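Following up on my earlier thread - several people asked me to post the actual chain instead of describing it. Fair enough. Here it is, all 423 residues.
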Amino acid sequence: MLKSIQNSGFAKNVFVLFSGSLIAQLIPFFILPILQKYYFTPGDFGLLTLFVTFFELFSRVATLKLEFGIVLQNRTRDAINLAIAAIKTSFYVALISGVFVAVFHKELGEYYEVSNYSYYFLLLPIYILLSSFTDVANYWFNRKKNFRTIAYAKVVQTSFAESSKLVFGLLNFNFNGLLLGRLLGYITTSLYFLSKFLKSDKKWLRLVNKSDQKRMIQSNKKFIFFSTPSVFIGALINLSYLNLFQYYYGEDVVGNIGVSMLYLGTGFGVISLSFSQVFYSKLAEITQKSVMSTTYKRFSKNLFLVAILPVVGVFLIPQQFVVYLLGETWAELLPIAKIMVVWLAVWFISSSLSFIFIRLGKQREMVLFDLVHLALIFIGFFVGKYFYELPGALWGFSLSQALFYLITIFAATRFIKRSNLLD
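Reply from S.P.:
Thanks for posting it. Predicted structure:
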């Protein structure tokens, strides 16, 4: 099995995406300490985290997750019309959200206790359009197995985003420099994807058809009715737990949580994003239960071994090193990172394999799973807080996250055995 995967180009494609993701993640990994020590406080990063999670509550579902179906289309005509339908949908969502934040941005500022920065909520429509386009482009080039373009795009995004943040820091911007830098990263990535698309698919205009777009929306409605609510609940979970920590413990704690996850994302996110996209492409080709089961279990075990390394690494870092590197302002970063790494290790395995649920047509079940996930977050937070305030809330949250992702990993094996979509 492993030999056949290697011969099919699976390992090569993962390596291409991994290389691009590694470079893309190393850029902020090296720039982030400079931003922390000289230019931005934990509170600045806390505000950035809150704004971004609020934006992603809308942007992550703006396409109604129609882009998930692009990889599964056999005909280029169907794929391009599905991609156009996804982008059109994001325009409508951006328009509606623009009206919403124009009317209620002051109220949102008061709710999040950021009244002085409430006008930044007006950036929501722009964020939606940019992130939606990059999502659609990623799946388009995934379908074409052009993983090199996806890898380059990751490097382009982080290069411009992080260098922009550095410039804004030099110009004495506060958290808004971090937010604007993130948007500039999306802008350059969108332009890069657009240029590559226009060069490689010059005849696509002749394939665009409104009736085909409607037909593709209808044939991929499972993504709308099940994947979209699932992704929305996932974004709501992120927003909810950050709101809880902000409400009870302030922006500095949120900033330390957000930054710790940025650092840990270098260890976990690189492999997860690279593996999951190529894995999704591979899953579309597997039709037998035995092959699917063997593939899933083998990669689960391998990813578990990989996940151990960052966990051990974080616990071996001395506290004095972090204080020396970043200053006393960030003294709480490492203790929080040691708690966050527990659930992120399990998330890494689960997210790397998560496309198995789409391949098996289990979007409906995942909506129910995500509702359980949301409940577990609140239970873990408040039970932990009750026994040991902030450390307890952090551990309660982390362990409830880990429990949920363990459940999804084992649930997939049951779904494979009972799947009607496999022989």
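The chain has 15 helices and no strands. That should answer part of your original question.
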